[in-house]
Amino acid sequence: MKRIFPFVLFIITAGLICLYMLIGSPGSGIMWQLRFPRLILTLFTGMVLAGIGSIYQLMLANPLAEPYILGISSGAAFGAILFGVLGLVILMPLGGFIGAGLTLVLVWSLAQKNGSFDRSRLLIAGIIAGMFFSSAISLVMYIFRQDTMIILGVLMGNLGRIFSQKEWLFFQILAGLSLLLMARLYFRSRSLDIVSGGDLYAGSVGINTSKLRLEIFILSSIIVGISVSYAGIIGFIGLIIPHVVRFFIPSGQKRIYLYSIWVGSVFLLLADLIAKNIAAIELPVGVITAAIGCPFFIWQMRRS
Amino acid sequence: MNIKLYLVLLISLALLFSCKTTGQKDSGRYVVLSPEVAELLCALGLEDRIVGVTKECSYPPALASKEIVGDFGALDREKIIQLQPGIIFSSALEQEAIAAEFTKLGLRVESFYPTSLEQLYEGITRLGEITGTQSRANALSDSLKQSLQAVMQEAEGKRRPRIYLEIYRDPLMSVSDQSFVGALIELAGGDNVFDRLERDYARVDPEKVIEAAPDIMICYSQDSLQSILSRKGWQDIPALKNGRVYFEADINPDWIQRAGPRIVDGAKRLRELCNQWEQKL
Fold this sequence. Notes:
The complex is a heterodimer of chains A (about 300) and B (about 280).
Chain A: H1 4-22, H2 28-59, H3 72-85, H4 92-111, H5 119-143, H6 148-155, H7 165-186, H8 189-195, H9 199-204, H10 209-231, H11 237-248, H12 253-277, H13 285-303
Chain B: H1 2-18, E1 30-32, H2 35-43, E2 50-53, E3 67-68, E4 70-71, E5 74-75, H3 77-82, E6 87-90, H4 95-104, E7 109-111, H5 117-131, H6 134-155, E8 162-166, E9 173-175, H7 180-187, E10 191-192, E11 201-203, H8 206-212, E12 216-219, H9 225-229, H10 238-241, E13 245-246, H11 253-257, H12 263-279
Parallel strand pairs in B: 1-2, 1-6, 2-3, 6-7, 8-10, 8-12, 12-13
Antiparallel strand pairs in B: 4-5, 9-11
């Protein structure tokens, strides 16, 4: 089973990408100017969510951890929504970055005590920051009722973003930067495995757990902030995909991380394909991820 | 002790039943929550009867002196009741629930939300009956019909440009033929690119806009021309190539989105845009 897993996944990935690009026989203009950017955004978002989810679950020693748990997503969503309702629709990603940056500073300052970076404090600080920005989003929703669609687009995920030429270039740069940061996180997998055995044990083999957590928190926040700024909040993937991967690969964060990234991107691609084509109106992709993922997860859980 | 208790109970019941509901009479004081109705009531010469409006009731300018009772979806209930309205004119959508609350309080609520021209004409007649201005209402309705008929006749036999109306950019939203504005585009001789959508105003796929190749684009999504021109894959759309992108400054959204007396201006302006397109063919 383990040997054919990558092979099967490769076939599914290739098939889905072909289907995604060719469904409905679009002209080459639509295919390369619209679908290709959407494909890249979808793969990127799926990678980020599932990859960071797998890291957070290990780092926070919490199976319910997901990329949005440390509040960065709410901050980014608030920034993007605020720019959107103020009429700066094109600058929404910039609003997202600013929101993510402010939240990062807020959580960081709340979580650290005498220079140490304890995981419980980090989790609590993240949840508090997330709640604060969620209430701020509710307030904006209440005041700017006429802009409900913009707000829902961010809160329920929107992979159908219209890119201008400059925006696309900027997104490519940021996605490239995110991939580099994700590669850096890959090389922290071994340390994370050790830290999951307890801070004392990790300290005894020479790992500075506080510094490691801080590094992971900052890098992952930048990546999640970029993802939310462009695609909005898409639930479920970051929580469930790492668990699904662990059904096949029970241990070894390096492999879990890599496969989470791969499965996450493919799963989001499938969800977006369905969201776009199942009904005449495009459905929010977050609804589809939960609708397919939950039954699959329950089936896997019962099977094992 | 028991006698005292019975007395208190009796007095309480007497007080309770002596409370009067405000009744269903038209006291000639109107609170108007819908900008469309505000425009129509003013067109019927009933401006003096309006005592309260929502923020969105911005036309005619004389309404600026009226009491503001909140905005479209967030109403100040106490202020409305203080104004002692004979009739509250509401719209549909989120106002329906609020209207139901006022009805429970014994206030008279009249809802008005036409989604087609026929419903608009019927609505004007009903407004006339409610306000006792039947003859003026019939005259207004006839005048609107004639003016729109004239626009329709002008459009007959002419080529129909494909028109795309954008309401939101992210996510992209447009209108269907079933919407009021979609019907007005068709009447003025245009061909709305989205014949059918799940709702009057719905999310649309950017790919479908490019495939539809609209000749005219009306943009109410707060986007700029420069930004629209730089959208990936949109450069070959005829409307963009030929500089036929129009904004709020070119065609007032209230003329075509509000089912009020100014739809004649909206239809005429749409016709002008179609004529300009045809002349350059």
